Amino acid sequence: MEGGGVMKTFLVLFLASTSLLTAGINAPVELVFPAGSSYISPSYQGVAMNDSYILVGFHYADVKDGSGKVVPGAGEVQVFSATTGQFIRRLKHPKPMTGAKFGNRVVLCGNLAAVLDTNLRVNAFDISTGNLKWSYRPTDDTEAFVLHDGFVDHLSADAGGVKLGMSTAWWINYPGLGFYTAQGFVGQVRADGSPTTMLYESDAQAMGGFGGSTAVAGNMTVVGSAQYDVGGEANSGLVTVFDGSTMIGHLNPAVAVAEDQFGCAVAITRDRIVVGARGTDLPGRGNAGRVYVFDKTNFGLVTQIDAPAELGAGARFGETLAGHGSRVLIGGTGSVWSYDLCSGDLLRLTSTGATTTGFGRSVAVCSHSAVVADSDATGGTASQGRVYLYRHLSRTLPAYAVVASTNETAPGCKTGTVFAGFGNTAQATNGKVLHLATLKGGESTSATNAGAWSNQGMDYALVMRKGDEFGSDVLSAPIQPFFANDGTGRFLARYVESQKLAIFRDSGTTVSQLLKEGGSLVVNGKHETIAKIHDVAGSTEASSFVTVAASSLPGSGGVTLSNDSHISRHIGVSMVNEAREGLESAISGVNLGQISPRLAVEAGRLAYVAKLANAPTTADSALFVKSLGINNTRAMAVKGDTAPSAGNAKYSSFVSTAINGTETVFKATLKGGASSITSGLWRTALINNNTQVATYPVAIRLQQAGGMPNGVKYSKFMEIFIASSGGILFRAQVTGPSITPNNDVGIWLHSQGVNHLLLREGAPVQGANGPKVGVIQRVSMAKEGRYAVLVSLSGTPSSANQALLSGNFLSSATSKWAPSLVLQKGQFVDRPTATPIKGLKMSANHIDASGSGSKGQASQVSVHGLLFVTEYASGKDLILANP
Questions:
Q1: CA–CA separation, 38 vs 117, rounded Å?
Q2: How many whole angstroms separate alpha carbon 763 and alpha carbon 163?
Q3: Could you report the per-residue pLDDT of 194-250, keeping only the tens digit for each?
């Protein structure tokens, strides 16, 4: 690029790279059952799957007991590989009983298979060994009131445990709570087999069918009552949503219609609740069926999917559902459909054999495959019934989701010079992207093999390339991309010969240098030479380009060692001090000393830490906050002040800060109190017409950790973010009972004085159907409250052991704050053919070295989606999407 350089346009190449086609469903593989297999379970839960295993129930199979005697109709479950479809082993009850119907319903929770027998007892097996772990039969509640007619007719599970839907259960001698005959309950059993409180509908109806369908993801449980009468409409149906054991809402169609049976099937996906209404009449097609999709955060109706036109009356579309990530399988009478919640694509699944009305009676899905049972089919390897495995299911990403791909010609470079990989990335509030990348091939050499690209102009184009000349010097590779609030890009680059660091501005059409180490410019009316750039943030004051923490060279413009550090805004060709070493601080009679090399800027406000030049060593530093361009600096916390809620401990040093329009959150070390209380997080704000400083604790070392078992306490604090609304997101390490290196890190939301646990290592992943969080690798948050988390996974094969999660804490219901699955390693993505994801990456350049996450730097999350990299066997894509 020449001197100040105009960016080059390569729009055609960009559009070509973002063209994502909708792939069809691959032809299925039929499962081959061992010789002599009985007929498969005709229930709606005759099959189950996760990323590793498939379960198929044979509830009337004859099996042998320990003595070798044949037990008629005792039942068995067969286990298959979810990737190859190969038979692995049988699961049998160690004490088989005649006619027990073991295998009538099956579900999976990680490596645990939950199997129903006699419609009364749930048995949990370790799939890897086939050993029975526990059995549970719901017989009474915690107060020992007898549970009548407690037949289990639906199971659901995640890694946290199993839900038992009992749609006709009721408690006798319990009239005081308004319980009705056969009103229905949902039992809850933890993964270790211990029961917990039952769920029930507070506005119950006799024979309402509560528990006839269930779904669970993390702390959220969704329960269908397909026979519930809404507004006097018989069997119109109702769905109830729980946060833990607390009911938080109902889902209904806008108009209740008799016999629609809304809630006959339910599923929870990444950010949606999906509900089947198999009895819905469509024009000219009675009982054709409909599926409703609701937002998991606010319960609003997102869309409704009517039975496709090719299905006639009695199709009962939506009678069965299974969801994972953004994919939902929808079954009915003789047909199954795959629906992509992101793209809206609805594709029909076909089988290799003649289908019957039993095709789709039981369905299951995982990140990469799906299973469909045809319980009435003949001609397979079982006495009756056939099961089909659909492998390599692929996701269609939204149009223009792919910003750039490796092995494609990089804009601004000669043909043959292609992207080799992607480095740090940034996303503007308007959804534009600025990213770094390396190059290979063509004209690329070690001196020119990196650069920065952006689509903030009209075209996707090269911004600056390693080896470009700017003035009389050559630039090294660009680093640290970010956006200012005006939507223009910023990045840093170092000159090769002088090794001086410079800040550049990308307007979308031109690139200009704002500031350079060794460069002279006017600072508060005097010519100074900038010796070192310490930190930089996008300024939110309209006439400014950046806010910089810098040091000036002593001897220039009256600069000495006593006033060389400063924080200044860059305006035009000059700078204006916001804070300056040597000047009087906001503390009367005390001057600013050395200013910290870190700053935080957001919503027109600046936070920084500085030494106090003429203060005692016990009080020689403070955290200051001010408005940009306004002389209203306040000391929000001073070394030696007693830290709220930390006993007698006092602030010793201020480590990091994050800021929004009204509050500041900071991390500090402590001294002088209990020996173990050495650090914490606090938030601070001005109150009483900005006349007083109020400071509140967020989390303190060895304080009880929110949402964790008693005795589990915070031990170390990592990243901190603060949203515009005031919600504070932080990552921390804990210590205490049952804490190991596999579950000692979590993410919390601090809201209205309470710390809510959002995600914990070792906990189940919402929407991932079994795997648990391994290591929390990356966290990023938009100021609007949406956040993304990149994690490794345990309890799943290495080919699927990483995931990208997303959450949003703007909802008033805590269950909706926790992150759920967006994409998982091993999923197949159309690019344009189905290709498995080999890895996921999210840039970390938005996190300050001190742990600050909200400081006017780059963001990987916005209302427009998540910015991340997917890796495949053939290359990588940089993606901005809400997949």
A1: 16
A2: 17
A3: 998 889 888 889 899 999 999 998 889 999 999 999 999 999 999 999 998 999 999
